[in-house]
Amino acid sequence: MIKILYGPKGSGKTKALVSSANNRAKESKGVVVFIDDSTKLMYDLKHEIRFVNMSEFPRLSNDGFFGFLCGILSQNYDIEGVFIDRLNFITNENVQEFGAFFEKLGKIAEVHDTEFFITFNGPADEMPDFLKKYAQ
């Protein structure tokens, strides 16, 4: 399953994402992963959550980031939730370029029984149609 929080900066998406990750960590028997482009949120997360700081890696396209996610999933069979803050900033790509990414992500979410929670910054009235089915 994929859930998207989409809206302008300052609309509370990151706060909701952190809260969801912390709640998931409390309830989960498996691993929860949080991916961000800085360490700013690291101390807001429960210590059980595996934090990944993308600024420690070369900038990736959305295809490269999809491969990165596959690598994370291949390393641990019991990842139950992956939380990604501001995916369009991590990849530095326009949200319109993520159509194929979400098709592939939906398939691995199902195969690996992993939920993905992702935030995107952008004007609420400009959400691409392919994201609307995942919107919260």
Give the arrangement of secondary structure elements.
Layout: E1 2-7, H1 13-27, E2 31-36, E3 50-53, H2 62-75, E4 79-84, H3 87-91, H4 99-111, E5 115-121, H5 129-132
Q: Can you offer a commentary on this structure?
A:
The chain is α/β, with parallel strands linked by helices and 136 residues long. The protein has 5 helices and 5 strands. It has a single domain, classed as Rossmann fold (3-Layer(aba) Sandwich). The chain has a 5-stranded parallel β-sheet. The longest helix has 15 residues, at 13-27. It is globular and about 35 Å long. The model has no long low-confidence stretch (mean pLDDT 93).
Mean pLDDT: 93
Low-confidence stretches: none
Helix content: 25-40%
- Class of secondary structure makeup: alpha/beta
Please identify which CATH superfamily we are dealing with: P-loop containing nucleotide triphosphate hydrolases
**What percent strand?**
15-25%
Strand order of the largest sheet: 1-5-4-2-3
Whole-number tally of structural domains: 1
SSE string, helix = H, strand = E?
A: EHEEHEHHEH
Question: Which term fits the overall shape?
Answer: globular
* CATH third-tier fold name: Rossmann fold
Tell me the number of strands.
Answer: 5
Number of DSSP helices?
5
Quick overview:
By secondary structure, the protein is an alpha/beta fold.
